[in-house]
Amino acid sequence: MSDATTLQRLADLLVGFGANVQRGQIVAVSSEIGKEPLTRAVATSAYRHGASYVEVTYSDIHVRHARIEFGSDEALETVPAWFGERILRLGDARAARIALTGPVEPGLMEDLDPARVGRDKSQALREAGTVVNERTTNWTIGPCPTPGWAALVHPDLEPEAALAKLWEEIVHVCRLDEDDPVAAWRERMATLVGVTERLTAARFDAIHFEGPGTDLTVGLLPSSRWISAAFETADGIPHAPNLPSEEVFTTPDPARADGVVRSTKPLLVGGATIRGLTVRFEGGRAVAIDAEQGADTLREMTRHDEGGARLGELALVDRDGRIGPLGTVFYDTLLDENAASHIALGRGFDFAVGPDDVERVNDSLIHIDFMIGGDDVAVTGITAAGERVPVLRGGAWQL
Amino acid sequence: MSDATTLQRLADLLVGFGANVQRGQIVAVSSEIGKEPLTRAVATSAYRHGASYVEVTYSDIHVRHARIEFGSDEALETVPAWFGERILRLGDARAARIALTGPVEPGLMEDLDPARVGRDKSQALREAGTVVNERTTNWTIGPCPTPGWAALVHPDLEPEAALAKLWEEIVHVCRLDEDDPVAAWRERMATLVGVTERLTAARFDAIHFEGPGTDLTVGLLPSSRWISAAFETADGIPHAPNLPSEEVFTTPDPARADGVVRSTKPLLVGGATIRGLTVRFEGGRAVAIDAEQGADTLREMTRHDEGGARLGELALVDRDGRIGPLGTVFYDTLLDENAASHIALGRGFDFAVGPDDVERVNDSLIHIDFMIGGDDVAVTGITAAGERVPVLRGGAWQL
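^ inputs. structure came back:
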């Protein structure tokens, strides 16, 4: 399935629809060693779409491994200033940005001290949040299948069959198996935009999640707006920030989250696998983080700053998307977060609240989504008057 | 020969002696897709030497191929402003810099329009020259053997044997076959420093090259000083900018070069192979550039700016180095320029002249070395009084 035509169709979808690259734009592509074929297809597509420059940045997880294994404590805290400055310059230049997700060597970090893995600051840039909130770049994040990722997702299959299966799934969830993938995306987005309008109109004061191991109430801000992945830059360029995307989301009140939540899917954070995660919140703060695996890494990451232990996102996913029904755990946030409702520790989105509440949006270096929804998790809206309104039951919208 | 020990010895030589990385320094590593093993060994060595951050930049020749094949004319002229700014920031941060040379896929550009290959601006940054001239970073350039490079250098050998042979040569020319490579380098450097002192003391007004197809006189500036690859930063950190290095060099007068010169080795420039190069100079300017192959690419590159057709470097190489005696054409400037005396079109080195002459040093975006020396090329110094003093005869120093 990773033939040249499929690569090109995925690249064209990311460039032409996801980021919606405009003639004369600089295009920054964030990739990783091991993702060269799709990266090159994206660069080619971007030049065909008229890019004035395609800047490809390949990270190398082995270099990160060396930093955590051999770097001084100072090294774990150091990120060159020009990394963040470059992101701001991309915003100034009104550039397009494309990132390719999916782990290449999922187990590589597992021989390291998990606390040092979590303490490593190099994985997050505050300026990335700034540019997203200022809406100065048209950007997208898309998946890049690799043999290592395929082996993680389909461990029972032979390497070639696993990769073929992963590609097949990616093609399906990206709607590349449609004659006109862009038309299919526009139709799905229209549905989700309708949901966001009804949710925003309901003006809930809080959202309640209830299911096996989960009883969590998350407060919303007075002006919290619900949004789908149909974005527009400040200059009016429409783009799809995630491909695929099946979610509607908003920015919650970082001061109000109470109860316990059990993650319904494992996740990979900074190269560490976190399984069986449970988090207890009090007054908006994650006061206890436990897991069968990887708790130390996540705990350290939430300690980067004050906002690391508070919520920046609350997202709902119905059962009509293409990812959930597959039943596949992808160990990649881009995909797994679109299989189930989720919340994120860390940075919130300014553009999901009104001007009066921007100051209250959670601020942090990190933004870590984890999945808490599923067909057996009931989602209920609570109005300021205390009325309880069903939102999702059995994965179906109730409003 | 590319076993883990050899990789580590080469990495340690580049980090510990070449760049001479200091504790707490940021280290920028400039690499390329296809050079991951040595790149990772360099990163590991740098962290072991106390680097506070190792920033690895992998370029991808396929992305460059896409730019030249599909990019607009605007794309060939565009380089994001933050590329150069980053280099200046490396200087501000007093960072160390390590670059790995050697082609990975030497023939890749050959299906492209050579004029477009030459017009592509992305290969040179003016700020790189600025930082070199300000001596704010301790830097080195070292070779990275790859299968593609080995096949180019040893086309008659099977792939594995070719790579083994190339590694063997790299180990030899880097003096890694010595028990103490650093001591061997210090000894060779002491010899070359002695030569630079005698050449500088001679105060030649010009250098005359005479051999088969070559009769070229290059003027020097009144304060031109001869230098070997024993550098020191403005802050006093010694470093070896090239490993290996066998040359002594100076900055010539860009207004005085007359005659013809025939290149004694082919070279790879911007991915294009240039063979059988002859250049005619008048009044310091290259007025005719001809070649059996690749002339168009070189001509376009010299047209980037006014200084592109004038000389910025003049370097002499004796027969006592380790590269020339191998008789191998490496198609890589780092190695080939240390096999034979050479000149470079483009940017000159401010630090090889006195303060009064800095304004006269050639300025350009490009710096392209090509080899013009050999045992059958006589090198003669000409004093201001017109006296002719033998400098190299049969590859041996005469002073």
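The mean pLDDT of chain B is 94. Chain B has two domains: 4-144, 194-397.
thumbs up if we can close this ticket
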